[in-house]
Each structure stands twice: as structure tokens, then as C-alpha cells.
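ok so I'm stuck.
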Amino acid sequence: MVFGQAVIGPPGSGKTTYCNGMSQFLTLIGRKVAVINLDPANDALPYECAINIEDLIKLSDVMNEHSLGPNGGLVYCMDYLEKNIDWLESKLKPLLKDHYLLFDFPGQVELFFLHSNARSVINKLIKKLDLRLTAIHLVDAHLCSDPGKYISALLLSLSTMIHLELPHINVLSKIDLIESYGKLAFNLEYYTDVEDLSYLQHHLDQDPRSAKYRKLTKELCNVIEDYNLVNFSTLDIQDKESVGNLVKLIDKSNGYIFSSIDSSAIEFSKIAAGPLDWDYYRYPFFFSSSSKRALYIFLPVFLQR
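replied:
not stuck anymore, here's the structure
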């Protein structure tokens, strides 16, 4: 059996930064990690990429050839990957013996709760290569500071969980920055545990735009609570304890911890034993031309010198 993670989430939620940091963390605790970039718009990778979808198809080429926008182009790329899944399988087979896999997916959310192509790609890999994958759905923690956006994030998380049908962990990323977005209406546990959403109604009513859709919002909250599936873990990618706790949760969800309990204990003892060198500034600021926005990609610091 081969274990790994399918990393998904909206644009800007930190998927590429997560894959970069997670791969280094897992390497430090003794695992051989391969990162697979399946985002054809990700043209500036901060991590060493074992497999890159741009060797098969590029978003820029698709947009130019078929006169598509970025959203339509990404759907086309995922369709193309699904039809050429043999290419990806052949690239993965040499890694199956001893690697832990991280799949860095595109940030277009429609691919994971509406279209079937990304789900089909994942399911085919699971069946043909006997993979044990956990979906890691990243949500930017700043959404907690806005009740309307928080409810939208809950709906997206729920829809994605139902659509993908994988072991699933929702993660509030960039939790270390949450205070910079403004004071939360409730304590953090309220947002991670997804408690009684009726408490948000008062805050929503204070916004004229939200008050207009009061009944709709109430019904959406009822749907979320009726399913009772969504909760969140938190992640500070620069904190070794935060990342370690998430890895333990992932290992339980996909079965890794049960396949090698002794080795797992040894792995985590390595980061608890003493300080580790970590080059925080290895990856500088860069500009992503495909997304037309500037991004800060930081090498995570799990343990200061």
C-alpha cells in the first residue's frame, strides 16, 4: 500500500506552501516524499517536483489554442489528464515502492464539488495503484473573521467532502495570522468545532447585504448542521508542533499509522529529541504570471535554531 495526501483548496489558501513545508517536515522525520504537481497553472514551484503535469499539458497553451479563460482552461486540463491517466500512472509506478505522495491540485474549487474529472483521476489512481489518500482541504483562516465568508467556507467544505468521498480533513491554514484579520466574534474553538451556527445570525444581520438573505442563510446553516460532518483542524506551517499534530491526524485517517506503528513513533521522536536547522529564507518572493498576482512563498520554520 502507498500512502499520501490530495491537497486541495481555494486559490490563496496555501496549497503550494503546504506541499513545500509538509514535504520537508516528512523528510525530516525519515519518510521519502514525492510531490506531484497537478496544477497546470503553477509555473513557479518552490519544491522539488517528482512529477509535473506541465510535462503533459500547460494551461497557457490550452488558453491560447482553444480561446479559453483560466477556469475553462483548468477544466480542459483535468479532462485531458483523466483521458491520459496512463501517463500519470507510468510516472507514479517507480515511486510506489518507498515514497509518500503529496498531490498538489489546482485551486479551482469547481473541480472538487461540481465537476467529476478530478474525482475520477483520484479514484482511478486509488484503484489501479492501491493508494491510500487523505484529502486535505485548506481554508484560509481569515474567513473566520467574516460570518458570511465563514458559512460559505463551510458549504464548500461540506460539498467537497460529499463529492470526493475520501478520508477528509478540513484545515484552517495560516492560523498564525488570524489575529491580524480582526477580532473574532467568538473563540477559535467555535469555528473549528462548527458549533451552533445560529449565533452567527446576529452578526450577519448587522450587515445590510447579509440581512437581505436572512432566510436563505438560516436554511444553509441548517443544512450544514443536519449533515454534521464539517469541522476544522488548525495549521501554522511554521510551527513544528502544529504540523506534527496534523500529520498524526492524517496518518490515522489513511491508515499509515496502523501499517507501521513502530516506525511512526520513531519518526516523531526525531523532531522531539532536539533542535533542527531550518533555512527560513531559502525561497524568496516571486511573481506567478499564470495567476497574475504576487505570492509570498516561505520555507516553513518548524523549529528555530
